Here is the input.
Amino acid sequence: MKLRDYQVRALDELWMWFEKHDGGNPIVEACVGAGKSLMIAALAQRADTEFPGTRILVLVHQKELLEQNIEKLLAIWPTANVGLYSAAAGKKQLGYQLTYATIGSIYKQAHRLGRIDIVLADECHLINPKETGMWRTFLSDLARYNPHTRVIGWTGTPFRGNGVWVTAGDDALFTNVATRVTMKELLGLQFLSPLVPAPTVARVDARDVRMSGDDYVVSELAKVTDRTDLVESTCQEIVELARDRKRWLVFAVTIAHAEHVRDELKRRGVAAEVVSSETPKQERAALISAFRGGRLRCLVNVAVLTTGFDVPEVDFIALLRATKSPVL
Here is the structure.
């Protein structure tokens, strides 16, 4: 598989950043659809080519992201000496030059990994800004075996829910944004389809919903959103607006809200199902597979298909969850 020109450019800029900086941990800011998993794979291969024996750890948050990243790695580098460490994936392979892992499974295993030269942290904006939490504890443990380990963060949103950049603060893990691939650039190159807002009649009135931190209190937001009349009118508009669309992705507030939306869409003849944190792993995989294959037209989800959900056929998105979060 051949990288696109902007991917090559971004990796070259990242490489030049390392040549100019003896210390620090950079970020690759790459928007949705930029192909972060491909760039991660290409970077790992380049590091091994130029510095044979480099030991690399790729960390992600979810099993689905892990599987997608491994797939892209093998497309770029079929002979990679790679192991997979994830309880959710049913594999705990160590002793490889390159390891792909979910942070929840690996964070207590630094002593078994030993020397790691480069950590590639996907969706790095989710890492705790303070010296606490799984990520920071794990990286501190890794430093015992190699104090010169460098961490490269990958994200399309290099800021937190409150809008503060991940490079800000005395305890910040990351020091600089080394390179950027922007949505404007990819829209101009026609690698992304522009978002086209559709005028709607149904409205969620969140004026009296309280805030918690940087976003609405979910329980209160659900009360003003998950009303029978509003769900019915919203679903009717979805059906009318998306009549000629292939794959619909709907974001709901709570599981109960998602189930009500699904039932209402089904009542209108739409093949729809719900995916949430409570959906069993095998069932979730089966539903996503059916969605990819066109056997399901609509997936209604609750905060689980938000990062790295790679289904290019999606051509209709319904946001039924009001938010103040710049990341969301």
About this structure: The mean pLDDT is 92.
